[in-house]
Batch of 4 targets.
Target 1
Amino acid sequence: MLPIYGLAVFMEPVYRKIAGCRWFFRGLIWAFIIFAIESCSGWLLKNLTGHCAWNYTGAAYNINGIIRLDYAPLWFATGLLFEKVYEYLEQNKIG
């Protein structure tokens, strides 16, 4: 899972591009990106190992057991929260 979570480093350029946009639009973008990463990494894990670290089979609104569309509000909010964390870390750099 650590390499998958490490993909978050690629979100900084996205943040810089969308920083001036309205919060609702940014939240939609974050939800889409997180779904895309979850979907691609889940598909890759299933095809390489036969298993995925998460299994949403049987859950409502799942797609191939890899993503759950009902998590969209969570990913929306998570993306906006990460923006605040990033801004805090940028403002409080040491050095």
Target 2
Amino acid sequence: MTGGTAAPRHRLRNRLMLAFAAFTLAVTALFGLYAVVFAYTVEDMFFNAMLEREAEVQLRHRTGSGIWATPRESWMRVVEDADGLPAGIAATLRAEPRRTEFAGADGDHYHLRALDAPDASAWLVAEVSGQLVVRPQRNALLRLLAWSGVAMAALALVLGWWLARRTTAPLSRLAGLMADTAPDRLPAAFASEFRDDEVGLLARRLEDLVARIRAFVAREREFTRDASHELRTPLAVIRGSTERLATDPALSAEARHSLAHIRQSAASLEQTVDALLSLAREEALPGSGTSTGVLALLERVVVDQSPLLEGKDITVDIDVPADAVMALPAPALNILLSNLVGNAFAHTREGLISIQAHGGHLWIRNPGAGVRAADLQPFAKAEASTGFGLGLSIAGRLCERYGIDLVIEEVEPGHMVARLPLLDRHRA
């Protein structure tokens, strides 16, 4: 069974594009920060160099004349007393004696240089707000950096899209090739279409896997063809023999009853073989897409499985309305009910086996040692089982094929329940 193929989602391509864009933005922001820090640092170094030269002049003048000279720059002045420093600087300086740069009120900005002459101490104060170059250009600089970052991110997206598309195109092509495969439609010799890189290596490994699958499918088809012949031949012999025996007038009523049961069992087995071979070949079972009435088929199954009740004190209660329908073709429903009812009959020693339809489900309840969900696996057998452990596995595969929710559980110690959904009567 195949379904519609969803449109591919280019998650890897998108991640590559976003990684390029994020990396570019990070690099742009980092170097933008470096540019701003560099500009402020150079500006501060310029002011500090001017203060250093002026401090040398002041100290020579103080040593020669005993007084401080008038600074050569109008935006510098010598302050001999801390109380003469601009507002707020004295308190900050006492808390941070090594600090040399201060922000004042109304946008003023100060640089400070201590003057330590042999006979006196003072401060050389420079109010540099009028000489600042970076601050007036700061907003423009930040806008330039922001637009540059956006432009670089856009360029990175384009480059990332191109590179991601070039990188992921072979992967997408390989994925599309694999998405179109089926057991009867396997690609051949496709690895040579890809370059000798990581994608090419993956393609070669997939080609090897496809070759092994093709060989397995061929062996499986040969087996199912041979099995079909080998299984149908003895069944045809049994059917022919029972038909000839049925014409013998010397047969007793009991013998005729047993013969009819053998003939019915052979016919049921032929139907089961056809269903199993169709499952093995992944073919549609006869009557696929149809629904089947439950009651008539269930009654026939109970009769066919009745030999499992011989010698047991068991009562079978069937409460299923005549219009109960299940979304399965008759052959599949026959196999399913035969396995579930036969399992209930085989694992019950005494008591009541109840088969009821209510709440939109068919319920098969039986006391005794039952099965577990694990027994749906091939060759998994309960302790009381006398078969090969394939019956419930077949039932599980049928339900999986037709989307039927089969539930087998132990509702209470020693009481098993098998539950199957019935088709809504209004939709049937």
Target 3
Amino acid sequence: MIKNIFLNMLEGLTGFASGLAVGCGFVALLTVLGIIPRLVQLSKSAHLIKSYTGAVIAGTLFGTFLSFSDITWNQPNGTLLLWGTFHGIFNGMLAAALTEVLNVFPILSKRLRIDQYLKSLLMAFVFGKVAGSLFQWLIFVQK
């Protein structure tokens, strides 16, 4: 009996510590990449900074809730298209912020002496990502 209580407490502590570590990593990633300040700067909407922060928090909590619950969300295709578009926008902003911070592509193109092909290189990455995502979704998920 005491052994089960101890194991349950240990599991709870491990789960809490793991969640805390993942949450801190997510916040650190958003902070280092500066996604929200960059979004505010590009959209010239500094007056909505609390809305951006609230949207990130609400989205994170809602995503966590959906991940750990048995709720299925059967919606019309239009709603799922909108939902997928929001996911794509977020992932695109995350990738763009990471690229902007690291300056990977300009450094790569200078080192390989392909400066004139930088735009084509970026478009190849974009189309490759889209094609891979569609392939994964249409072939593996839709069974």
Target 4
Amino acid sequence: MAARLEGDMKRRRKRADKPTDSGRKTESRLIVEQAEFEAVCDAAREAGIAAFDTEFVSDASYRPELCLLQLAVGEERLAVDPLVDGIDLAPWWDLVIDDETTIVAHGSQAEIRFCLDATDERPRRFVDVQVAAGLLGRGYPLSYTNLVSRVLNRRTKGKATRTDWSRRPLSDKQLEYALEDVEYLPDVWTKQSKSLRKRGRLDWAWAEFDRLIDDVAADREREPWTRLSGINKLNRRELGVLRELAEWRESEAERQDKLPRRVLRDDLLIDVARRHPSTREELLETRDMNRGNFRKAADDIIDAVRRGLEVPDDELPQKRRKGGGDFSEEEQVLGKLLAIALANHCAELDVATSLVGTASDLRDLVRWHVLDGDKGAPPALMKGWREEVCGDLLVDVLDGKIVMRVGDVRSDHPLVFERRGG
């Protein structure tokens, strides 16, 4: 996998994305025929670049339902209706995972997830202009409207956030809103890629696009129980019970094609894990559990509790430390110190701090350098372009090699970091 990704990166660096004319007029159409859709995919492959967005409904079924595919290819804006009988999206997903076609999106976690679900393969030449914007300025994450305004000085109508995209027929106004989400993406990326290349950050961008895909893929594989809030309050045995309960709920949600929380609410799942009832009466003594659908599932819930109680001690989930995930108080204090240094340095470089490193990333660095003596795998801030940007500075701050003072108080980066004796 690592060798393949490295090869992808080299190919990406050698290939310039094809420019588009930001003053062009675009044509729009709705595609409901497979042959026409495949012709569009062929045109995108020939052009070497296409913009991509989706509309979906995520609150009515176990998995989000893809309701509309929006594409911009050349001078056309195209909406593809995947709910029409006979429409097979496989030709598009084949394009997304090939090595030749640049796919441009904005805030693309959902689009990446749809691709992974459809193909079980990663997108390849995949661009997220929201991420790219964070490497060219401190605004991150920028909405599509604000990004288009900043990069192209153009106004958009905004998002139709309350639309039920599963209803048919779609109105002309709905389609216009949806297609606007891809109209400017190729032009935005054309300008961004030129700026990134000029500032020596194009490789940073491609690395970040890959990291975004990594994050979505990792989240897709996370165990259901790890997504729940309140788990830090449970001991290891209760976590073991919760794990079994969450797996049961996930299986039941998929069977019923419901959101997991509509099978059993998160807070009730935590409550059952804490009480671990052994009988129906004990289970249903909580007021909110005394409902018909929970009564029907009572035996299955008790069986899940029993399985959790039978897990051997050495196979139970590890408990996180109270007060900040699995980080100690010392790590959190030093992490806050580094956050000041990082924010000031990112302001100097005009790059988004939240994209460079999170509070968790900073505490990882503290643990690795101060407590573990640089042993083990380097943390994120000591890899790739992040090490180049801030790694040495942050390590030197921890080592006491750098002192901090106030410089120009009117500056957006008023702190000055100087080496001792300098």
